[in-house]
């Protein structure tokens, strides 16, 4: 299984075998952290690994899972930084999936220092060998159909359809699936769905993080199909106030 295939197989794992991973594998994970791609290099994101063998690390928050390890995500306090963090974290989560390691995003949980190198702790990801089923069957995806996520202005080509299918599979907080797309033959306009009522800051920041996860799926799919992708923010759209969504970016594809 490669990292693209992991998009369609990964499931959230909440029960783990409380045993250590091989030292060499942990070294590979740390190396992967050093080489993660980001959406915006001006938005810093950092990760820490906490060992919990023997349950010596106490996770605090609403969402908890006893796991042998936790990955802690630190980032700046801006919408673009949250997207950047989601984009980087999902690469790592999918990489762990290819190594037969289970993961789960614990969105409102905390462990360890609240800050690292001037960045605030944002989110915890549990990981370790799964106790039970690691992979998901496709009928378990519980995602909106593409027809509910996309407005089609043109008929997309075969590869763009596959890229959108990968975007559809992105995990999100409370399975909210905030992404919406306006699709042309060679480009996709990405929007984040607006909520009907004002939401707490944690909820809105998690939705930005989710958008980063989804953009990671698109990036990995474009690479899988050898599509050149350009990501841009168009001022004419970013300045406009939309009733049902917030403009995030424009993705242009070249075969």
Topology:
Layout (H helix, E strand, L loop, with lengths): L2 H7 L13 H12 L10 E7 L8 E2 L7 E7 L3 H20 L3 E5 L2 E2 L4 E2 L2 E10 L17 H4 E3 L5 H11 L10 E5 L3 E7 L7 H24 L3 E5 L2 H4 L6 E10 L1
What does this structure look like?
- Helix content is 32%, strand content 25%.
- The mean pLDDT is 93.
- The chain has 255 residues and is of the alpha+beta class.
- Helix 1 packs across helix 3, helix 3 packs across helix 6 and helix 5 packs antiparallel against helix 6.
- It has 7 helices and 12 strands.
- Strands 1, 3, 4, 6 and 7 form a 5-stranded antiparallel β-sheet that branches.
Indicate the low-confidence ranges by residue numbers. none
Question: What's the average pLDDT?
Answer: 93
Strand content: 25-35%
| Largest sheet features | 5 strands, antiparallel
Topology, number of strands: 12
What is the chain-wise order of helices and strands? HHEEEHEEEEHEHEEHEHE
Number of helices: 7
The percentage helix is 25-40%
Give the overall form.
globular
Secondary-structure-derived class:
alpha+beta
CA(first)-CA(last) distance: 24 Å
**What would you report as the Rg, rounded to the nearest angstrom?**
18 Å
List keywords for this structure.
255 residues, alpha+beta, five-stranded antiparallel sheet, five-stranded mixed sheet, 25% strand
Provide a compact summary of the structure.
About 30% of the residues lie in helices and about 25% in strands. It has 7 helices and 12 strands.
């Amino acid at each position: 299984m490669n990292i693209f295939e992991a998009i369609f197989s990964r499931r959230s794992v909440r029960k783990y075998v409380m045993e250590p991973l091989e030292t060499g594998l942990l070294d590979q994970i740390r190396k992967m952290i050093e080489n993660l791609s980001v959406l915006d290099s001006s938005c810093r994101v950092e990760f820490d690994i906490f060992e919990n063998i023997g349950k010596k690390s106490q996770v605090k928050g609403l969402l908890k899972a006893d796991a042998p390890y936790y990955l802690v995500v630190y980032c700046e306090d801006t919408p673009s930084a949250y997207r950047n963090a989601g984009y980087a974290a999902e690469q790592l989560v999918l990489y762990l999936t290819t190594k037969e390691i289970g993961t789960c995003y614990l969105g409102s949980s905390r462990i360890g220092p609240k800050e690292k190198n001037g960045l605030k702790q944002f989110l915890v990801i549990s990981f370790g060998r799964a106790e039970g089923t690691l992979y998901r069957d496709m009928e378990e995806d519980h995602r909106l159909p593409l027809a509910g996520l996309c407005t089609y202005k043109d008929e997309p080509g075969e590869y763009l359809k596959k890229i959108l299918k990968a975007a559809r599979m992105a995990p999100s907080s409370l399975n909210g699936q905030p992404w919406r797309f306006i699709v042309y033959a060679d480009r996709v306009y990405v929007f984040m769905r607006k909520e009907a009522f004002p939401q707490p800051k944690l909820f809105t920041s998690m939705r930005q993080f989710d958008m980063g996860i989804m953009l990671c799926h698109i990036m990995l799919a474009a690479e899988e199909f050898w599509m050149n992708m350009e990501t841009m923010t168009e001022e004419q759209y970013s300045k406009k106030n939309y009733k049902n969504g917030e403009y995030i970016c424009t993705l242009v594809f070249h075969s």
